[in-house]
Amino acid sequence: MHLDVIDLKDFYTRPLGHMVRRLLGARLRARWGDIKGCRTFGLGFTAPYLGAFRGQAEPLGALMPASLGAIPWPEQGQCLSVLVDETDLPLIDEGADRILLVHMLEWSEKSRALLRELWRVLAPNGRLLLIVPNRRGLWARVDTTPFGYGSPFSRSQLTKLLKEAMFSPEEWQYALYVPPFNWRILLRWPLFWERLGLVLWPTFSGVIMVEATKQVYAAVPVREVKARRRMVPVPAGVTPRCGN
């Protein structure tokens, strides 16, 4: 069972959702830094986090799977969101330098096929960053947030899944130690709870963040010509200049 895009949008408009966006967004920006010229895409419900990279990443797109539904994003200006099939993304081979996966893997019924499709579209020097509920954490045990739905993961489960899809997990982080409740005392000092959790119970976070790179020593079958015709190329005139 999982929520839909309207439920997710509603969560991120509430105080607890705002706190989650601030905490995870800060981790994401610290991890990726300046991504000027990087072809950057998010799959799942990534709009709350991709907004920080508008004006840097080129192109930038929020890929929203049909299982969740799609909404226009951003609310003003050119629409950067599109409804997609999670195992048949409208991107050329090696057409992405950065991919963010949030509110997706734990709900997907085709997790292996999903990761193989991400392998196809990720550039050899690209980065895949996943944010998933931690099986040990409190956030996976209550259904008042989106992280309480679907199948949470342990670090060993994520490692196995990524390696089977020919990804190498490289950087691990744990986040969301603040309890998942709309209590004012919790929402006022989220950084205090994050620091306390890192010291007292480091592996019992709400989510696991892992950045992975693509293994390129083996090939995958080329898609059928008909399928390739459906892919959307990078806009003409855009020269990827993304750093490693």
Sum up the structure in keywords.
244 residues; 8 helices; single chain; alpha/beta; 7 strands; globular; seven-stranded mixed sheet
Distance between the termini: 37 Å
Fraction in beta strands: 15-25%
Level of helix content? Answer: 25-40%
User: What are the secondary-structure elements, in order, as H or E?
Assistant: HHEHEEEHEHEHHEH
What topology, given as strand order, has the largest sheet? Answer: 3-2-1-4-5-7-6
> What overall geometry do the principal axes of the alpha carbons give?
globular
- Main beta sheet, described? 7 strands, mixed
Beta strands, count:
7
**Structural class based on helices, strands and sheet pairing:** alpha/beta
Uncertain stretches of 5 or more adjacent residues: 224-240
Mean model confidence by pLDDT:
88
How many helix segments? 8
Overall radius of gyration:
17 Å
Textual characterization of the structure:
This protein is of the alpha/beta class. 30% of the residues lie in helices and 21% in strands. The chain contains eight helices and seven strands, in the order ααβαβββαβαβααβα. A seven-stranded mixed sheet has the order 3-2-1-4-5-7-6, with helices on both faces. Helix 3 links the parallel strand 1 (40-44) and strand 2. Helix 1 packs across helix 2 (15-32). It is globular and about 45 Å long. Residues 224-240 have low confidence and may be disordered.
